[in-house]
Q: What sequence folds into this?
């Protein structure tokens, strides 16, 4: 967004606002993707099972000091599921990970909307971009619905 603005605009403030808008919007998208990929219930390929350092996994691993790292990362393939993996999936659901991640993602979305409003006030219009950005809303239930 910043590169496009730097090509199209001569105002450095517009370029900065566009760059910040793009950063916040795409960080939002990445956090939503991380929330969807972290959920351990239906696949061993999920981020928790792979020990990826995404926001939801790091939050979950650090949300309880007494959690043992082996327990936290005990999610195993569905075909070899045992009680430990089921317990960890339940812990993941009840740890508030989805809610925390959704709140952080929403903060980045709100920043993007704020930057877009500032761009609109400077330029007078942002075309359909405002409608496009307004269409993005998430909730923890949409990220990982209860089964």
A:
């Amino acid at each position: 967004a910043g590169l496009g603005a730097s090509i199209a605009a001569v105002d450095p403030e517009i370029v900065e606002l566009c760059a910040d808008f793009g950063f916040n919007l795409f960080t939002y998208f990445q956090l939503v993707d991380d929330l969807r990929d972290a959920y351990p219930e239906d696949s061993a390929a999920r981020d928790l099972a792979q020990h990826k350092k995404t926001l939801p996994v790091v939050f979950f691993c650090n949300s309880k000091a007494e959690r043992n790292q082996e327990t936290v990362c005990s999610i195993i393939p569905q075909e070899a599921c045992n009680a430990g993996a089921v317990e960890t999936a339940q812990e993941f659901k009840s740890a508030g990970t989805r809610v925390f991640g959704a709140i952080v993602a929403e903060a980045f979305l709100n920043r993007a909307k704020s930057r877009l409003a500032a761009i609109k006030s400077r330029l007078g219009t942002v075309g359909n971009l405002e409608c496009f950005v307004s269409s993005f809303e998430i909730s923890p239930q949409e990220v990982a619905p209860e089964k």
